Amino acid sequence: MKVAITCNILPSNYLRESGDDTFAEFDSPDTVNEIKNSLLNHSQCGQVEIVEANQDAYQKLRQGNFDFVFNIAEGLKGEAREAQIPAMLEMLDIPHTGSGVTTLAITLDKRRTKESLYASGIRTPGYQLLHSWNEYKSRLDYPLFVKPNNEGSSRGITAKSLATCREELENAVSEIVEAYRQPALVEEYLPGKEFTVGLVGNSPQVLPIVEVSFDHLPSDAPKFDCYEVKWIYDSLEANCETTFCPAKIDKDLENRIYEAAVETFRALDIKDLCRIDLRLDENGQPSIIDVNALPGLIPDPAENSRFPKAAYAGGYTYQGLIWAIFDSALERVGML
Question: pTM value?
Answer without folding.
Answer: 0.92
